[in-house]
Amino acid sequence: MVSSRGRSSGENARPLLSIVVPVLDEAEGIATALAALAPLRARGAEVIVVDGGSEDGTPALALPHADRVLTAPRGRARQMNAGAAVARGETLLFLHADTQLPAEADRLVAAALAGGAQWGRFDVAIDGRQALLPLIAALMNLRSRLTGIATGDQAIFVARAAFEAAGGFADIPLMEDIDFSRRMRRISRPACLRAKVVTSGRRWERHGVLRTVLLMWTLRLRYFLGGAPEKLARSYGYASHDR
Questions:
Q1: Contacts of residue 234, Cβ cutoff 8 Å, sequence gap at least 6
Q2: What does the alpha-carbon distance between residue 184 and residue 178 come to, in Å, rounded to a whole number?
Q3: CATH number for 232
Q4: pLDDT mean over 18-43
């Protein structure tokens, strides 16, 4: 069951953009991450945080910086779907807790959708000390532009009607962004915005850059060859729906 922990005081004013942030044990950085969205909220965007059962006080830390804070069954796809279900905006943007949007993100998204796109994503830059991270980000952006596949790190955005037509995110523990992109491509090609979101390099630095890249390539290949997302999630180190 989804439960509400907060609500915007301006609930009657319908936002143009709803930013959905799935979180799990993000106490260390959640307040700073959400505070960065304050200018977008001031221009009318709605911020919805969906917690998957944090044990470090993340929801309480998020509450002062969001319009709504929800709890939902753990799993990034489940959490994002829960946020979308209560969002009031006509455009949805799904943002990882360790990713920062460009200052004009709301206007860039609005322009892309006004130009005929039904969905899209930003280019990404990876923040970290490792020298290979800029190259990895450049290859991610190039691959996405060529294939029309977006990853969650790139802050996927979508018109609500298109999101509902596609059926939202599949209830799988890994590759939900890849699956969603494949279904959305049947509706339209994505808008590939060159403005960059900045995402944390913590995943690559924690496990090693080359090791992480090789693992992700292997998992994606297994997925495209029909591998079950549950097995892929275990290979990645997640328990069932542990995201």
A1: none
A2: 10
A3: 3.90.550.10
A4: 97
